[in-house]
Amino acid sequence: MRKETGLFDEMHKTLDELNGNGILLVTGDPPNLMTIGWGTLGVIWHKSIFTVMVRPTRFSFEKMEKSKYFSVCILPEGFEKQLALCGSKSGRDLDKIGVCGFTMEKGIRISTPYIVESTVHYECRIVHKHRLDPGTLDTAIDKRFYPKKDYHMVYYGEILGVFRNEKVG
Ligand SMILES: Cc1cc2nc3c(=O)[nH]c(=O)nc-3n(C[C@H](O)[C@H](O)[C@H](O)COP(=O)(O)O)c2cc1C
């Protein structure tokens, strides 16, 4: 049973997890999972926005480019192996959902599914995207994070709902 909750109730924990073992980005039809560690939560255009950053080399990038929606799932403790797998193997080579043994359920406001085992999930609609511009990027960041010039695409997701699993976490 999932209950709607508020962005401001969840954002600190979500940012902690982003900065820790990561959280899972779910996108595409059929869906793919990818661990993300970078992103922001905030308010733009009077909307609650979740930005996620996806390098163009990822299978998830292909999925995102064809999608209008994505979901973001925060797992409870004990799923470190699954987060590591989804952050090191590509959905091009592996059915990550099957290998992790996750149960997927259709979103509450979007068709993109969420992971039933997650504590909290966000449902987002892509309202904007842009590629990082090396011309305006700090040169130290450019040198450190983009030796291959594979600049992230930044996707801005309007948060249509934040839902908490009443039984977990
Ligand atoms: C903790 C962690 C955080 C990560 N954060 C990101 C991220 O924010 N953006 C990104 O493009 N890749 C990130 N990655 C790398 C992808 O998760 C990884 O390349 C994954 O295998 C891509 O899967 P895919 O090809 O199925 O999309 C992260 C990996 C880990 C382990």
Description:
The protein is α+β, with helices and mostly antiparallel strands and 169 residues long. 22% of the residues lie in helices and 37% in strands. The protein has one domain (2-165): Pnp Oxidase, Chain A, CATH 2.30.110. Strands 1, 2, 3, 4, 5, 6, 9 and 10 form an eight-stranded antiparallel beta sheet that branches. Residues 22, 32, 34-38, 53-55, 58-60, 87-92 line the site of flavin mononucleotide.
CATH class: Mainly Beta
Mean pLDDT: 96
Distance between the termini: 13 Å
Number of strands: 10
Shape: globular
The ordered string of helix (H) and strand (E) elements is EHEEEEHEHHEEEHE
How much helix is in the residues?
10-25%
The radius of gyration computed from the alpha-carbon positions, rounded to a whole number of angstroms, is 15 Å
* Number of H/I helices: 5
CATH-level-2 architecture: Roll
What ions, cofactors and ligands are bound? flavin mononucleotide
User: If you consult CATH, what is the topology?
Assistant: Pnp Oxidase, Chain A
Provide the low-confidence segments as ranges: none
CATH superfamily: Electron Transport, Fmn-binding Protein, Chain A
Largest sheet: 8 strands, antiparallel
> Structural class of the helices, strands and pairings?
alpha+beta
Q: How many individual domains?
A: 1
The amount of beta strand, in percent, is 35-45%
